[in-house]
Structure formats: structure tokens, C-alpha cells
Design a protein that fits this description.
alpha/beta; TIM Barrel; six-stranded parallel beta sheet; 12 helices; 12 strands; binds zinc ion
């Protein structure tokens, strides 16, 4: 595949005939971890894990698409028949598992790093919860009524509610998945403090302790720098502690965006101007603040609007989840 540059020039001029052009838009895929599922402990939740074989076969079957680098984005517009991969969070397997595959297909990618994970000041609560759930046949979860209400408000759907007993069965992979969906909800919607409290409460209810973060789950700074020097890789920011930007206060959004930018620029020695919202979650205010902190483009996961219209806001560029691609 060839890296296409200067694709982003004809911006925001939608005409009716253009909407009928087949696939006139770039495909920007969002991934997280790339790891062999067969090597994961039994009961691991695969929500954010793609198998290297899946990545291989996707890139093989899309070899006709041109690879483009987000570093080349100047304006958001069409880049027909082109493809770019993005990886959120900064998992170490992006270097060890994904990069060799990207090299094989000459496929550019952007890695959006959560700087607090690399600084080892925090880690994703979801992966801690996943570790806590391995090997259980049931789990007791604290009931938090506002989570259901907030979930309904955010998704527009009535989420499954935790039974009054607070006990979720996990005897089959299906039950495990349902239990995971319900148990992780407060981690998705809560503040940093409430997420920490929730995991501690959950550990107490299940007579266990909150496990320490896996030491090599995330890249260290030397590895981020090595990736940054690689011609196929662009490094972007993904906040400092990974909160939802649609629920965070303006002050928190500013601190999160600014801290991640400053830490990356200190460590890499050059400007970093691409951002992806944790969970893809953003709001009018979040987009304004992220722009004001100096980011040129920001990426989400949700589709907003139709066709080219989706690309009209450089602070909310849609991506497709790799699992839905
Ligand atoms: Zn993330």
C-alpha cells in the first residue's frame, strides 16, 4: 500500500451527486489491543481485543485500498478508497503484535496514547475489572441506581438492570459477557474517584482485593518514542486518565487534554496535534475545549450525520470500530 498525502483539500462542499458516489469517504478504523485470544486467561472479556489473525485477514482483503496517515490530515474531507488504522489507549501489544503486521502491509497507523497509563499513574479500570472476573462463577456488584438512568440518557436505550440481589451469574461465556456489560457500566460513566470506589466496593463484596495493574500492559516512554520514530506511525493523545469528556467538567476536560498534550510533547520533542476522545464520547463543550488546547483534529467513534457531512467537523471525525468493519 502507498501512503497518500495531501488528500484532505476539498472540504465541506457536499453536492447531491457526490452523495451517490460509492465509498467516497476514508475508512478510519478504531482498534485497541491486538493479542492472541488463545493465550488469554479463560474468562477474559474480548471487548477491546482483536486477534492478530483478524488484522491480517482484514488488511489482506482490503489491499486495494490506499493506506493514508492521519499525520497528513490538513482538512477533513474525502479520501476515497483509502484506509487508516488507529489504536486507542497505548497498549504495548500495538508495538509487539500490531506493528509487524502493519509493516507487512505497509499500512500507516496512529496510536492515541493515554499518558497516565504510560506514566503508570493510572490504568484502565475495565481491564482491572476483567482480571477480577476471571475464574468466577458469579459476581456481586454494588447497585448504583444513577448508572442505569445515566446509561439510558446517554444511549437512548433502557440498559439491562442489575437484579435486586446484586448477584450476576457467570456460568457460561454468554452469562460472563452479560455480567461484564452490567458490571463495567459504572466504570464507563463515573468520575475517577467514583470508579476507584466502585472497584474497591466490588472487591470487598466478592472477598478479593483490587489487583495491581499488569506491569507490561502499556507502552513505556522508550517504546512510545520508538513507535514515534517509525515511518508508519503517528502518535496522538487520548487524555491523561481516560474519563468520558461528555460527562467531565470543563476544568477537567481542559486539564485532561492539556496534560496529555504536554506529556507527549515533552517526551517526543515535537508538537502533537491529533486527539481521540476516550470512549469516543464528546460534546459541544468538549470539542471547543480540545480545540482550544491546541489540537488540530479530534476523533470519535460515533457516526454523526450522513456521508460527507460526517467529516465537516475536524473536532469530531468519525471512526469505525474494527469489530464492526
Ligand atoms: Zn480509550
Amino acid at each position: 500500500m502507498t501512503i497518500v498525502s495531501s488528500l484532505f483539500t476539498d472540504f465541506g462542499k457536499t453536492r447531491p451527486w457526490q452523495r451517490k458516489t460509492p465509498s467516497p469517504f476514508p475508512i478510519v478504523l478504531a482498534l485497541h489491543r491486538v493479542a492472541q485470544r488463545s493465550e488469554m486467561p479463560e474468562g477474559t472479556v474480548f471487548a477491546a481485543i482483536s486477534d492478530p489473525l483478524e488484522l491480517h485477514s482484514y488488511l489482506k482483503s482490503h489491499e486495494s485500498l490506499l493506506g493514508f496517515s492521519l499525520a497528513e490530515i490538513s482538512e477533513v474531507t474525502k479520501a476515497s478508497n483509502s484506509l487508516c488504522l488507529t489504536f486507542d489507549d497505548g497498549y504495548r501489544d500495538n508495538l509487539t503484535q500490531a506493528l509487524p503486521i502493519l509493516e507487512q502491509y505497509d499500512m500507516p497507523a496512529t496510536i492515541f496514547v493515554t499518558t497516565g497509563f504510560v506514566d503508570r499513574v493510572t490504568s484502565p479500570f475495565e481491564s482491572t475489572l476483567s482480571t477480577m472476573m476471571v475464574g468466577l462463577t458469579e459476581i456481586r456488584v454494588p447497585t448504583i441506581p444513577w448508572v442505569t438512568t445515566l446509561g439510558r440518557f446517554i444511549t437512548g436505550r433502557q440498559p439491562m438492570s442489575v437484579p435486586p440481589s446484586g448477584i450476576l451469574p457467570m456460568r457460561s461465556p454468554e452469562e460472563h459477557q452479560i455480567a461484564w456489560n452490567m458490571a463495567q457500566r459504572p466504570l464507563k460513566y463515573g468520575s475517577l474517584e467514583s470508579r476507584t470506589d466502585y472497584l474497591e466496593k466490588l472487591a470487598e463484596l466478592n472477598n478479593m482485593s483490587v489487583p495491581p495493574p499488569e506491569p507490561d500492559l502499556f507502552l513505556n516512554w522508550e517504546e512510545v518514542r520508538r513507535l514515534d520514530r517509525h515511518p508508519l506511525i503517528t502518535i496522538g493523545a487520548h487524555s491523561h486518565t481516560h474519563p468520558r469528556f461528555d460527562l467531565a467538567s470543563p476544568g477537567q476536560i481542559y486539564t485532561e487534554a492539556k496534560t496529555s498534550k504536554i506529556r507527549l510533547e515533552e517526551e517526543l520533542g515535537h508538537p502533537v496535534d491529533l486527539f481521540s476522545y476516550p470512549y469516543g464520547a464528546n460534546s459541544y463543550l468538549a470539542r471547543k475545549i480540545v480545540k482550544a488546547t491546541g489540537f488540530r483534529c479530534a476523533f470519535t467513534t460515533s457516526q454523526t450525520g450522513q456521508g460527507r457531512q460526517q467529516y465537516s467537523n475536524p473536532m469530531a471525525i468519525p471512526r469505525i470500530d474494527f469489530r464492526d468493519a
